[in-house]
Amino acid sequence: MLQIKDLTITHRKDLRIILEKFNMVLNAGDKAVIIGEEGNGKSTLMKWIYDPELAEEYTECEGERIITGEVMGYLPQELPEADKAKTLYEYFSESSFFFDKNPKELSEMAIEFSVPKDFFYSDQNMGSLSGGEKVKAQLMRILMDNPTVLLLDEPSNDIDISTLELLEKVINEWKQIVLFISHDEVLIENTANVIIHLEQIIRKTKSRYTIVRDNYKNYIERRARDYERQEQQALNDRREKKIRDEKYKKY
Ligand SMILES: Nc1ncnc2c1ncn2[C@@H]1O[C@H](COP(=O)(O)OP(=O)(O)OP(=O)(O)O)[C@@H](O)[C@H]1O
Ligand SMILES: [Mg+2]
User: Fold this and answer.
1) Ligand nearest to the Cα of 39, by number
2) Which one of the ligands is nearest to 41 CA?
3) Could you report the per-residue pLDDT of 173-195, keeping only the tens digit for each?
4) Which of 20, 44, 53, 77 is the pocket-test mutation for ligand 1 (most atoms within 8 Å of CB)?
5) Measured from the CA of 36, which atom of ligand 1 is nearest?
6) 89: burial class by Cβ within 10 Å (0-12, 13-18, 19+)?
7) 119-171, pLDDT tens digit by residue?
8) Which of the ligands is closest to the CA of residue 14?
9) 47-71: pLDDT as tens digits
10) 178 near 27, Cβ under 8 Å?
């Protein structure tokens, strides 16, 4: 189980509240997507979940994180600078379990991820890989460490259809917890069963979040209906006010 209690994140620089009293519980089988406009704090939230210190480099964070028994695997939005200069072999060697894998296991993994068998031993730099290759390398490396929770920050950016399908398969077949960030509506529709929506409202002065246990299509449709209803209500309110004002003027 992954639980977050009353998490509030404030940006150090402008004291903007990125997230306020955020509560969430995820269990095995949950495929949760974090959606929201750019800059709304999706990556910051994921960093905090993986390692609060990463978020605390530029934010103040207050809250509780309960991750007893879980092992987290994290794919950051950008490949860290330090990893770019590593060769694929150096990158994989850093997994504590790489050398425990026998050639058969590695070759099965290579087939599953559609990469050459010698991919793990390649002297190509991580930084020079294509978008799709980079995501594959990161995912394989994460999976080698036998995590229970997958944290994937925009893995669907800059990858081709076949890698996207692979990603969809990995998410759908994951038996434990997946939390991912994506703007790819098809991927979200085909995988997510929990939607976490981060918003900045009232001219970006207030943070609001919504968590629903439903698929993306239903969430978006319901939101559109709610919005329409609110617009209609506002229109009615204005009409009533106008009638009241006119009556008042007469008297
Ligand atoms: N390393 C950093 N140093 C200082 N401020 C940062 C840093 N990373 C993010 N921020 C700021 O924190 C806020 C939240 O950023 P975050 O990266 O979490 O947004 P996001 O929702 O992931 O956006 P995107 O969709 O563009 O990836 C933004 O105002 C951003 O400018
Ligand atoms: Mg981000």
Assistant:
1) 1
2) 1
3) 999 999 999 999 999 999 999 99
4) 44
5) 21
6) middle
7) 999 999 999 999 999 999 999 999 999 999 999 999 999 899 999 999 999 99
8) 1
9) 999 999 999 999 999 999 999 999 9
10) no
- Output the CA 49–ligand 1 centroid distance in Å: 15
Kindly state if the Cβ of 38 falls inside 6 Å of ligand 1: yes
Nearest atom in ligand 1 to the alpha carbon of residue 41 is 18
For residue range 112-122, list pLDDT tens digits in order: 999 999 999 99
Stated length of the chain? 251
66 CA to middle of ligand 2, Å? Answer: 23
Owner of token pair 């994989």:
92
All residues at 6 or more sequence positions from 230 whose CB lies less than 8 Å from its CB, including other chains: none
> For domain 1-70+148-214, which architecture applies?
3-Layer(aba) Sandwich (3.40)
Our answer on whether the CB atom of 44 is closer than 6 Å to any ligand 1 atom is: yes
Query: Does the beta carbon of 14 lie inside 6 Å of ligand 1?
Result: no
| Sequence ranges of the domains in the chain | 1-70+148-214, 79-145, 219-251
Q: Quick check: CB of 197 below 6 Å from ligand 1?
A: no
170, 174, 178, 182 alpha-carbon torsion, rounded to 10° = 20
The encoded tokens of residue 78 equal 């950008």
Angle, in degrees to the nearest 10, between helices 161-173 and 131-144: 20
